[in-house]
Amino acid sequence: MNTSIRKAYPADAQAICDIYNPYVRDSIITFEQDPVTPPDMGGRIRAISADYPWLVAEADRAVAAYAYASRWRSRAAYDRTVESTIYVRSDAMRSGVGYSLYMALLEELRRRDIHAVVGCIALPNPASVAFHEKCGFTKVAHFPEVGRKFGNWVDVGFWQVTL
């Protein structure tokens, strides 16, 4: 798959919703309960990208994946730590687009003098665990039954990479 990576813009909101909302509706991968509207997603893109990178990967001139970093915690001591997020369109899974995009995000964070990146994974999710570990992340925490979706308790694990 021939891809290009660029900054995300609010105009990408519909394409990003098209990627994200199936995860909201059909999986425990996100704890969000209701699909996100393009205006709301556009607002998220504006708010997050004011301080942190939000990137998209395009394949055949369509958004195939997106990734961004956001503030980890509000205390100043955490200013050089971020949480990373990535979602890949279902038909682009295992194509390499996600890996290229995540590596570009990590490189951008490195340029911005970010020290640590934390990925939060709802468990079980062996594909995301393998993906994060391929990208250099190591498991650092496991919290049993801290989320609830579809009437079930869900564990959460945290993976971290130090840049």
What does this entry show, briefly?
This protein has one domain (3-117): Gcn5-related N-acetyltransferase (GNAT) (Aminopeptidase). The chain is built from four helices and seven strands, in the order E-H-H-E-E-E-H-E-H-E-E.
Describe this structure in words.
- With 163 residues, the chain is α+β, with helices and mostly antiparallel strands.
- It has one domain: Aminopeptidase (3-Layer(aba) Sandwich).
- It has helices at 13-26, 38-49, 97-111, 126-134; strands at residues 3-7, 54-59, 62-71, 81-88, 116-123, 138-149, 152-162.
- Strands 1-2-3-4-5-7-6 form a seven-stranded mixed β-sheet, sandwiched between helices.
- β4, α3 and β5 form a beta-alpha-beta unit.
- The longest helix has 15 residues, at 97-111.
- The radius of gyration is 15 Å and the shape is globular.
- The model has no long low-confidence stretch (mean pLDDT 97).
Write the layout of secondary structure elements.
Elements: E1 3-7, H1 13-26, H2 38-49, E2 54-59, E3 62-71, E4 81-88, H3 97-111, E5 116-123, H4 126-134, E6 138-149, E7 152-162
Parallel strand pairs: 4-5
Antiparallel strand pairs: 1-2, 2-3, 3-4, 5-7, 6-7
